[in-house]
Design a protein that fits this description.
- With about 450 residues, this protein is mostly beta strands.
- The strands form nine sheets. The chain has a four-stranded antiparallel beta sheet, with no helix packed on it. A four-stranded antiparallel beta sheet has the order 2-3-4-5, with no helix packed on it.
- Strand 12 and strand 13 form a beta hairpin.
- It is globular.
- It starts with a helix and ends with a strand.
Length: about 450
């Protein structure tokens, strides 16, 4: 290798180190209630990543909690009559002010569960039920907290303040159903319909106009159920199973169910959360039910071990931690929550903020209309040879997305067209305008319109 080549590589790896790890992602174990047995689990996170909810085992049994940086883990309390012996929180509204879940007033498990809605001003109240026994479980809430979905006892329900609880129906031959997730606007719900013995189960998608519609199964499987829906309602993630193995799927109206697989050695995988337009999915992949590994999936890198990604791409020291499942992700993909086993061998809720990948989003952002212009960090970064660049347009406009080298020479134009407001994703395959592969190094990408001029940096390693 020549002296010039050695110098170039030295400079390159100095740039690599400074760009990759100048701002590490932050990882937090969320602890437990005072006197608790350290069996906490984070289930959902507010849109800005600041408020987390879930449940933890306290002296009196499992209790639903809310966590913030300032307050730490705080119990959501109880019904006005203090009838819950245990409670579990499942989902939180975008602003963190409404939390839904279910409690057990008798200690008899499913036979006595009752769904609840919690607000800071009113505390806990019941959702109601659709069966004579009064059973219900609330699983998800819309962004503004006005719509709740869940299991009404024998049928999936949708709750609104003005209308109360109403059933969503069932699929033919499957007389029971439950709804587990709802879009941000509350207009699209997903769940499963099943027979009385749970031997036949199928994912459904419900809309106000179309009602309940079955989504089928992956090839070679005979049962399916969903776990999450993207905030815009376009993507559903869940599990489709045969008698011996279960696979995670990603559903859209155009593709149907697509198998996104399992982590190596796992026999079943359960997605937990989906980003705004379904570009990122997180969840857990299990060798057995006591041995899980949290995963992160995207269309470029496919399914990967979340702990490995955080260590190798974000420089986090997670020595002693086992991340068992990722249960939710913010719409922008910035914050992930879940649970794992801490270095002391105890189950503990966690929250990870991907500061490194989102620094440019916070700096390269300008509000023009009701939606911000945002240029997000490419993903993955570093990459070889394909990476995805996502951005958000605040208004309909002519936009140009271009790649440059570090001395300002234009390498390639990826977008130069009129586009509608909203989310967009473009891939770059590491080639120039002649389709010739470019060398390893640092590259700049810019998003330009009449409204904005935003830039980001990325690293290509061949």
């Amino acid at each position: 290798m020549t002296r010039i080549s050695l110098l170039c590589y030295s400079v390159f790896f100095l740039l690599l180190s400074s760009l990759c790890f100048s701002q590490h992602a932050t990882f937090q174990g969320l602890g437990d209630f005072p006197g608790g047995s350290f069996e906490s689990s984070a289930q959902s996170v507010s849109a800005d990543g600041a408020v987390v909810t879930g449940y933890s085992n306290a002296e009196s049994g499992s209790q639903a909690f809310m966590w913030t940086e300032n307050t730490g883990m705080v119990s959501l309390g109880n019904l006005p009559d203090n009838s819950f012996k245990a409670s579990w929180a499942n989902s939180i509204s975008a602003d963190g002010k409404v939390i839904v879940g279910y409690g057990d007033p008798v200690g008899d498990g499913w036979n006595s569960y009752k769904g609840f809605i919690w607000t800071a001003t009113n505390g806990m109240s019941l959702t109601g039920s659709l069966d004579g026994a009064g059973r219900s479980m609330a699983f998800d809430v819309s962004a503004d907290g006005s719509v709740v979905v869940g299991d009404g006892g024998q049928q999936a329900f949708r709750w609104q303040q003005s209308e109360g609880i109403t059933g969503l129906g069932t699929l033919p031959g499957k007389p029971n159903s439950r709804a587990v997730a709802v879009s941000a606007d509350g207009m699209v719900a997903t769940g499963s319909s099943y027979n009385s013995t749970w031997t036949s189960e199928e994912t459904f998608r419900w809309t106000q106009d179309g009602g309940i519609q079955g989504l089928g199964f992956l090839s070679g499987t005979s049962n399916s159920f969903p776990n999450a829906i993207s905030p815009d309602g376009s993507v559903i993630a869940g599990t489709s199973a045969s008698s011996s193995r279960a696979y995670a799927y990603r559903w859209t109206a155009s593709t149907g169910m697509v198998n996104i697989g399992n982590l190596p050695g796992a026999y079943t995988t359960h997605p937990g959360g989906v980003s705004q337009n379904g570009e990122i999915i997180v969840g857990g992949s299990y060798v057995n039910m006591s041995n899980g590994q949290a995963f992160i999936w995207d269309s470029v890198n496919k399914m990967r071990n979340l702990k490995t990604v955080l260590q190798t791409e974000y420089g986090l020291d997670l020595t002693g931690w086992t991340l068992q499942s990722a249960s939710d992700i913010t719409p922008d993909g910035n914050v992930i929550v879940g649970w794992g086993v801490n270095p002391s061998g105890q189950q503990e809720a966690f929250r990870v903020a991907l500061d490194t990948t989102r620094t440019l989003l916070r700096e390269g952002q300008r509000t023009v209309g009701p939606v911000d212009f945002k240029l997000r960090q490419n993903y993955p970064n570093p990459f070889n040879p394909i990476t995805a660049i996502s951005y958000q347009l605040g208004v309909n406009c002519i936009v140009k997305l271009q790649i440059y080298n570090t001395i300002g020479k234009e390498i390639k134009t990826l977008v130069d067209s009129y586009q509608n407001a909203g989310e967009h994703v473009v891939e770059w395959n590491g080639t120039d305008h002649t389709s010739k592969p470019v060398c390893s190094g640092v590259y700049l990408y810019s998003l330009v319109s009449n409204e904005i001029n935003l830039q980001g940096k990325m690293i290509l390693i061949r």
